[in-house]
Amino acid sequence: MYIFIQNLPESAYGQNAELSALREVWLERKEAMQGSGEYQEFLKKMQREWAIETGLIERLYVWDRGVTELLIEQGIEASLIAHRGGLERGEAEHVSAMIKDHYTVVEGLFAFVKNAHPLSQHDIRSLHGAFTAHQDTIEAQTPDGRSVQIPLLKGEYKKQLNNPRRPDGRMHEYCPPEHVQTEMDHLVAWYGEWEAQKAPPEVLAAFLHHRFTQIHPFQDGNGRVARALATIVFLKAGLFPLVIRDAKRTPYIDALEQADAGDLRPLCDLFARLQREAILTALGIEQSVQQARHASEILASGLQLLKNKRDQEMVRRDEVFAHSVHLEGITSKRIQELDANLKSQLKESSPPGQNYASSFAYNENKTKKRDYFRHQILQIASGYKYLPDLSRHSASIVLTIRTINHFQWIVAFHGLGPVHKGIMAATSFTQFRIPREHGSGTDAVDVRPASPDFFQFNYAEPMSSIESRFSEWLDASLAMGLSEWQRSLARQLAG
Predict the structure, then answer these.
(1) Are residues 361 and 453 in the same domain?
(2) What does pTM read for this prediction?
(3) Domain of 487, in residue numbers
């Protein structure tokens, strides 16, 4: 049975503090970058990726990530799709035409937002018509189970049920055609109310996207339209198109199913993470943009004004170093307490003639050991696809456990590069130390990340918010690291 859509409960979902702070950082720099060629090329590639991925998610075409990256770099061309995607020429031309339709849509979304036009059902139907300009039919099933192609209604609400059958045989029920108009009336009205109340963009985007997919007002293309509607929300907030790569298809569908069950938070969190990635990428090109425009800005604004503004910004950006020292203190206290408990327990577990032990170390920024784990930090950061900046601030906290092996769990704090923008990262990783074959000392081996993602913090986010997020990250990282230690013992003892 179809469940009618519900409005977003009052204050049900607060804003994502990390995204809010990053958005503030981005909006401070966005205006200076918008006219640059580098930024425009970045947006063009993002729009191509959006156009390609929104169809991949729906399985309108299928290929590996390498084909997508080629089309992002070189443009959406049928010849490239045929050659690298393994499609026949005619099919490649059809796919190329569909992707170009998608690209036209995302370009139109920027214009729509610029005109500050309130969202209407006419706009939504127009979006669907633009998405399906080169899609004339859809697959349907006859009562006896045969698959047939039927004409696609472009820009019109459905006139027949479009309920899909799940793999387990159950039917998922979308809104019946006779209720679509009323449901869409409610959705557009509620969206307008929450937009006027300035709901957090990730919450508003998730709400609009989910409720729209819950209705499923069109015969086909509902997912593409839903992602376009979410993109409108983010563009209005000064952020980026919602690009959901095919690699994220499973967590995306899982989040939608949890929203069906009444919990919108996973979808909000997913959207926030995707915007976080886009902002960090955009900030990564800021340095080259600033260099390209440096001379003209100096001439236009005056040397002294620029210097004063820069100095003010640098003072504010440097506040992140105090944030880092605070987080380092939290980590040190936690690991010292753990080390104190471990010492007595390891002593009791030591076999005769052996001395199992643990130790704690805090390599502060101003000490000679600040760069002790430089190689490991670069390796771990490469896996997370970011460039660490160790020049301004670098510190690490280490828990060492010596039993039948020599194990270390490390949390490292450093800038998020390539230049200082007031953003820092914390990474955690594990390693083992083994004696060198020649000479004294030990070498680090089997370096592995001890958290699903690195921890990002910046000068714009309140310390209370950073600390709350960090405590969760630290707990998860410590559990993951100690699990690696336990597995190593089990392997060695079994051997």
Answers:
(1) yes
(2) 0.74
(3) 317-494
